[in-house]
Amino acid sequence: MVITPDVPNLPFIMRKGVKCFELVAEPVIRELLPGLYIKGWGYNGSIPGPTIQVYPGDYVNIRVYNRLPEATSVHWHGLDVPNVMDGVPDVQPSPAIQPNHYFDYHFKIINPPGTHMYHTHHIAAKQEMMGLGGGFIILEPDEHKSDIQRDYFIMLQEFHVKGLQPHEVKPGIYDIDPYAHTFNFFTMNGRSFPYTTPLHVKYGDNVRIRLGNIQEGAHPIHIHGHQYYVTAADGNSIPVGNRLLKSTILVASGETWDIEFKANNPGIWPFHCHIPHHMSNNLTSPSGGMFTTIVYRD
Prior knowledge:
Blueprint: E1 12-15, E2 18-33, E3 36-43, E4 49-54, E5 59-66, E6 75-77, E7 102-108, E8 114-119, H1 124-127, E9 133-138, E10 150-159, E11 172-175, E12 185-188, E13 199-201, E14 206-213, E15 219-223, E16 228-233, E17 236-237, E18 245-246, E19 248-251, E20 256-262, E21 268-273, E22 291-296
Parallel strand pairs: 2-5, 3-11, 4-9, 10-14, 13-22
Antiparallel strand pairs: 1-2, 2-3, 5-7, 6-8, 8-9, 10-12, 14-20, 15-19, 15-21, 16-17, 16-18, 16-20, 21-22
């Protein structure tokens, strides 16, 4: 299974051969740093929302409850679903879910294994920047045959936290401005460094990291001490002969990328967005923001 550090997986119940999930869109208070919270919108108490994991051929029913003060929807980003299930009510027969109502999205998983996302697609300029998104992973049916020992998903997000002066970080519960064009806090799976959870590996592991981004900015994600192969784009596997060997990849809004590397250089290695302002918490020092570490357990 794929691990999403600091974010739970969404559980399901089997009913007559259908995997039944429940997502609750609701206000969420998320702790970016110890004692520093934002008042955002998320799913099931989490920003980003819980990661959904399925297999090709699964029949799924995802009941989405709306506990927000306005209508919302969910779009299954990169998935080939029926038009009415695509979640864009402004242009499709897929409905907007009114406050205190729910809608059942139901479809068969026909995409191959890969990394996808889900997110609101109604009043998106506001709702996406409030935090409404999460990961949607289609797993390999024969996972036991895979040569991947560590498999991680990381959602990249940014927020404009109100009520703090530049170069100021202090405990409190803060509103965010979803319409801002500048951001002062940058997160991996809803946390800012040094509050992010390290990605643990063992020497000799083959490691996959899945990266997703549904918000405003583009983020060049860089690894130290290793080179990685780019193995999938937007949930689509890249043929072995066409894979690039890199140490930095730009993850633009709406993109997912899978990267893989051999854990063959022991130590504690930074893994981060390379934009300098994105490696800080409200322009303070030392390092912060969209930054984590790869830590060899042994």
